[in-house]
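Annotated sample (chain length 471).
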Amino acid sequence: MSVEWLGLHGVFVLFIAAIIGFMIARRDTTIVCLAGILVLGLVATYSLSESVSGVFNSFIYAIKELAGTILVISIIVGMSAVLTRSGIHETMIAPVSRWVRSPGLAFWITGIVMLVISLFFWPTPAVALVGAVLLPAAIRAGLPAVGVAVAINLFGHGIALSGDYIIQGAPKLTADAAGIPVGDVIEASIPLVIIMGVVTTVIAFLDLRKDMKTGKGVFPSPFKGSTGLNDDLPFSIHSLKPALTLKQKRWLSVMIVASFALDVIAMLTMKLQGGDATALIGGTALIILVIVSLMTHRGQGLEKTTGYLIEGLQFGFRVFGPVIPVAAFFYLGDAALKELYGSVLPDGSTGIVNDLGVALAQHVPVNPAVSAVTVTMAGAITGLDGSGFSGISLAGSIAHLFGAALGTGIDTLTALGQIAAIWVGGGTLVPWALIPAAAICGVSPFELARRNLKPVAIGLAVTTIAAMFIL
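Output written by the structure step:
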């Protein structure tokens, strides 16, 4: 084993530990990642100029890898903004709201609608779309505002985002870090997402129903949601003056639903995954944005369309800004190192992470139980920054490491790490990540986080055990 091998791999492990430590301390990891990229470059090339250039080039590499994901989410946010402001979203959800007649129905209908919309629009825009229409209906049916917030969180930021089967932003990040196809992560995540979703939502509903009977910890007060002007929301929920007739809104609602339904059919029949599926969804969303913007704003449609695109891109880069440095570092554990610095690893090496996995298998007793628990803990730790996305590259990298050591199950471990990171940081446990849903529902984000803690913790434990048997 050469000194160069020990240097590169040792530096990589050292900075992984530092990143985890900073995440536990709830401190930003950008500077740590930059330092890790710089030091890896120095150890790989022994050249200060090449290592400094490598810091910038690693960002370029990460942005190229993430460009499709950032762009499709930005377009969808822009599309969601024009649907909200034109009032089309109210027309789309109105048929569902009439079924909200009891607290139980209000919880499950709100959750399921949030799940479906989040799969296509992403959870943060869906909060405004669902909350603006279903919250008043749910409260009239007797469900407290905190119950609506719990449903929105668990179904949207939990189930929908942790699977992310339509937009495929989350599995793209974890699959790249783990060095496996996106389709493998998606397929492996299906049973785990179902288990996690069922356990958390059932426990949350039972706890909520029990507290509603005793009057403990619920807020049966009239609707007091925010106006939607919170800075953490990508757009205001205020609608424009009625520029579209009711007939036009209904026609556009049917057209939008049918368009995305056809996308799903095409993805299934043509077996589109990864970048191809993202491109199909993104193109559809962009066309819808243009059509609705032109019809809504008429004479100002050209300018307003550009404005919605800019608004979406601002949101996309604000969300993925913290992700790029982290992804840039972890991409160096695989293909990026060779692309940036050439063949700096010994003959027979297949990447830093692969080499570490082989070494781990040779020197540490690794079994499915230890691997699953470790990956879940790593994923949960990466979610403590409240993003959910900034650390899932780390979760994918660690899953690859343990999967290589086991000789199997990289896809399952990657999906498990992704689920843990998203559920903790994506908007169900970390209070500062809960602000959009809490603001719409007019509840405290800390109260919402407290309510989610028990069901999410139990759900992660059950899902981890299930992953041990799948491995």
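Annotation: Residues 3-470 form one domain.
Annotation: Residues 196 and 459 are 5 Å apart (CA to CA).
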